[in-house]
Amino acid sequence: MSAGMRNVGIFAHVDAGKTTTTEQMLYQSGHIRALGSVDTGTTHTDWLDVERERGISVRAAVTRFAWRDVAINLVDTPGHVDFLSEVERSLRVMDGAVLIVSAVEGVQAQTEVIWQALRELSIPTLIYVNKMDRIGADAAAVLGQLHRLLSRQALPVMAPIGAEASFEGGVSIADERSAAQHPWADAYRRMLLEGAAEQDEALLEAYLEGRPVEDAALSRVLVEGVHAGALYPVLFGASNRGIGVKELMDAVLTYLPAPGGSEEAPVSGVIFKMERDPVMGKIAYVRLYDGVIRNRDTVLNYSRDMQDKVTQIRRVQGQKTEDIGVLKAGDIAAVYGWSRARIGDIIGSPEGVPGEKRLAVPLLTVQVQWRNEAEYPAVVAAFQELADEDPLLDLQWLQDERELHLKVMGPIQMEVLTSILLSRFKLEVSFGAPSVIYKETPAAAGEGFVAYTMPKPCWAILRFVIEPGERGSGLVYKSVVRGEKLLESYQNEVARRVPEALQQGLRAWEVTDLRVTLIEGEHHVWHTHPLDFVIATPMGIMNGLANTGTKLLEPMLRFRLSVPEEYGGKLMNELVLMRGEFGAPVVRQERMELEGTLPVATTLDFPARLGSMTKGRGTLTTFFDGYRECPPDVDVSRQRRGVNPLDQARYILAVRNALSG
To answer: Is the pTM of this model over 0.85?
Structure first.
């Protein structure tokens, strides 16, 4: 257990002041001598050209500093929803989180998405209300919003002194003496005591009987509550003026837990970020949960089932790195020399590694366009490298058609990809119009059959039952065939190939939400070749889908819309035209709020239209809400990759050639 260390992620909606807060932490802890600025593009954690130009973070940045003799590994994550995959990977390796909320804008779209993920992974969280010095900053209103949208257990541990231009910082209310000196702090202290008392009987008794609550008892209940994911301390500050940052760093040490893990246990870790160095090659950022890794050690990559040698272990601090030669349980460092590693790979034993939370679901696909034919190979290589660093791009290279397709979260990500290709690879690319990623599901139950017995030598007979499943259930596969009819090794091959076969249905979209059962299977003692079931499985599955037919599914968004009341009627009409479904509107302070669901397909240009329809005063929050059946008049196919297994003769030839080649 490393008591002298913390692993903390900083999370926020774009523009809440996350990078400025990180910069102040580095400065006030003495780690950097001069402050960088987001506006002038000189911060230590945003160093990609595109980050400096746009003033937004697109990659999670790892940095490290010490505060009161405790080492803090800080991961500054992107705030824009298009880079949610970076946030998702960082969440997995944090022991604690600081969620930053703007005192002016309050809880925003991305704040809620991240909050849900932090809660599902039970990561202890502090809430830092930043920008208290701005016009319109209102601590009480933000606390009300935190309670309404995030949790009733968000409890202030400090009371702000002043607001807007007169903001001077805060006073600790966990400490009775300091709270008593400021009469206006009393209401905040009461809120803190009431929330904490709900967690502890002795505290509750003292509070209800009007006896003084001891600071030590209150502090113990707070720390236990935060570690258990039941309480969330709230602090106030103005990072651009450096106010409240020291108190925030103190709170990180007081409330957020140190990493667990043992150096004596077998190695166990995860790669949560990949970068590429022009000289050193791939850099794998590793969070180690157990064990020790040293330079020149050979370590098992559990996910790829291979051994890989460490050439160097370096500590990364912004753009500076130093060779530290060793990575111990609980810590984070950059490992060099693992050329075949990928993001998400588990190193050593999977025992100590926590699960991951899927937040980012790319719902759009785009085609890449390049300037001239001579650059085509370089563009393919560049995108293959980027897909290594962000597997969600799910690069599809159609070699015969000379096409590249990727999955994206939204328009900002496309702009950033264009910018990265230019600055890092010196390549100019553009993208076609984005299209929505649909899925298919069986329309009814039915059977798929294949007898692959020609041209010899081959023998594979399979019969599947295909049935529709619950929405969101994915693929459920099982076999009821006995081992003497079909050897276990062949059955395993079929089980491996069914998900691959379902990557393209009748309209070439992925097929999901279905049950597939193998009810009959046969091999031949002499004629069966082990690869026969690789060829037969897709033919049997496609035969089944041709018999059941498929329905199209489209991605849906759950939305919350807030607009000035006078635009309400116009927007409700607009939502109906977009096939939206919503509940009764709620009116609060001359604004109308609507909640409901919308198809992604009809909303691609809605955020831009909303801006012009409401003169920039409407706000839209959306979350992915799963796939649902399309109305009958929507029928969208896409181009199939490779030969269709329904065309059996051509398919057999194509796959046999590929396998022998």
So the answer is: no
